[in-house]
Each structure stands twice: as C-alpha cells, then as structure tokens.
C-alpha cells in the first residue's frame, strides 16, 4: 500500500507485491474545503463521492475502510509513505522504526502542512497493519546532493551546520518524472531539464543528467513559487516589519504564510485553480498572472544555472490539467527555445512545443516511485 498525504489531498494505491500495476488506487481531494471528493478505482469498480468537510485524519480513516472493501481483505505486506521532510542526512528511502519516527517528528515545524499528516498516516498504518513493513520515502531525498552554493543561505556558517539549508521538496515526483523521461527519450533524460510540479503545493526543479541541482523550494515548502495558500518567495524584511509594526508572532506568521497567502490570499476567493480559472474577477485573474509570472521568472533562473535548457516538463494537478496555465508560462519564452503548439497544448499531448526546447506534459506518479522503493525492501 502507498499513502501520499499532500497539503490538500491524500493519494493512495495498493499493488501486488511483485507487480507495478495497482489493484486499487484513488485520491481524496480538496481536503480543507467543504466539498472533499473521494475517487476510488479497483477491479471493475470506479466511483467519485462527496465526503463533505473533513480533515486529513478522518480522510485517512475513510480511505483505509474504502480500500478494505476494494482489496477484499488482501494481506498488506508493506506500507510505503510519502514523508515530506527527511532532514539533512536522508538521501534514500528508509524503514520507519521508532527512533527514525521520533527524529522525523522534530521536522514537523519545518513542514507544518505535511509532516504531521505524513506521520499520522504512519501511525494509523502501524495500527491497521501491525505486521506490515513501514517504509518512508522522502521528498527531500532527491535534492540532497545540490552544489553547496544551492544548499546554503548567506548566514553565519554555524546555521548551515545546524541544518538551516535549502532542502527542496516534491522529490518523489521529480524522481518519477526523470525515470519516465528516460523511458520516453533517454537522450533528453541526460540533458538539461526543468520540471514544473504545479499542484496545491508548487515547485520547480533544475535537473542535469538525472540529478537535481536546484529547487525553487528551500528550507521549507514555503519558498519559491506562490501556491494554493502559501506565499512563495518573500522578502524577509516583510516578516520583520509584520512582527515589529503589526505585533505578529511566529504562530501568526505561520498561519499567514502557509494558510492565507498565495492564490487564496491574492484572489480573496480560493486556493483551487479550477475555481480561479472560471471566476472571472479581476482579483482571480491577478492571482493567476502572479502565479505564471513567478514560474517564468524561475524558469529563466533555472535555465541560467543549468547553462541552457533541453526539456521543460509540466506535472502536478495544475501542470497536467490546465492548458491555460501552461500557455501563459510558455508565452514570451521563445528566447529559451520554447514555441508553444497551441493545439497540442489544448490536447495535453506528450510534446507541446515546436521549438528547440522540448516541452512535455507528463502525469506524475508519486505512488509508483514509493511502490518501487518498497519492493526494494521486500526484495522481490
Ligand atoms: N482541470 C483542471 N484545471 C485547472 N486546475 C486543475 C485541474 N484539475 C486539478 N487542478 C488543480 O490542481 C491543484 C491540486 O493539485 P494536486 O497536485 O492534486 O495537489 P496536492 O499539492 O495537494 O498534491 C488544485 O489547484 C486544482 O485546482
Ligand atoms: C511539498 C508540497 O508542497 O507538497 P504538496 O504539493 O503535496 O502540498
Ligand atoms: Mg502533491
């Protein structure tokens, strides 16, 4: 079984121990809204149902009971978990024992929208499947060998030694995409690639010869692009000002930056791109304009650190499904060798650019990369 708790979703799948096609899979989306949707697929059965308003904990309980029905009580040999933060040392999947779980709990303040839910899922899985192996797969692991200049901040060196580093996230998604790109076009997978993972959380990754050399996310999953409810990059002077002049403390800033900013804050309406694209208000349009502006800006920066660009890949809920956002990101990027093919983009075709830089849409599959890691531990 794989469990992948994102900020607004829980994705899940059940695989046979020695096969890479899930026997059941699905997702609970729009957690935190009053209209969460649970989609289930398994055998001949497919359904989407409204779950109303629920949190991650209740959502996980409903998922486990729905899966029980779909898998007809099949024994669960192992559960693979997406864990957003693995800290400075972890660069590969790990068996989750109690010492490691205690260590991972210490990183919860660094990823408050994710780490507590990821660890709650581990404890729920231990309770539900006490005999199963529990495996952690880390969003940070793919980025752990960044060049030093991209791993540090310009603070006194002791902070780096204490773990104040640029970690980067969405690593399971990037790992999957680069594996998939290697299957589609092995030459491209060895080249200079930028992957834009645009979901409720959004980041971009600069990949050279299959390895991450830069991420727009940094110490936390707040940095870089604006997101559903997160600010993205912000001048730290703003935070000092808010503390000094508005009397805000750490809890106020956490709430502001993680839960009230980004697309939600700018639009005053929603964190959900589908809602913003159809809203038609000036504020919703400005939120979309800021989102795509920051993606283009980071794309230029990443092409600079890569020394050029061979491939741009879109993935994540927005990257995979919004032709409009892909078009707005690509507009004006001819100088980078991108020439959008509008019809191919509308159709979300494999290749959507006619220029020297290949632009692709590749649906990401964090579950597949988790399941692969788990199979490694089961030695099948
Ligand atoms: N057809 C669509 N058009 C535009 N945006 C979409 C579409 N489908 C999903 N999205 C957006 O994808 C985002 C969720 O992405 P996802 O990767 O599932 O989230 P999470 O970061 O929680 O894993 C939401 O903003 C949602 O509106
Ligand atoms: C790290 C992160 O932002 O994850 P998600 O996109 O699933 O919220
Ligand atoms: Mg996600």
Automatic annotation (TrEMBL):
GO biological process assignments:
acetate metabolic process; acetyl-CoA biosynthetic process
Q: Which cofactor does it need?
A: Mg(2+); Mn(2+)
Catalytic center residues: 139
Give the EC class as a word: transferase
Reactions catalysed, as given in the entry: acetate + ATP = acetyl phosphate + ADP
Query: What role does this protein play?
Result: Catalyzes the formation of acetyl phosphate from acetate and ATP. Can also catalyze the reverse reaction.
UniProt similarity note? Belongs to the acetokinase family.
Provide the protein name: Acetate kinase
* Gene (UniProt): ackA
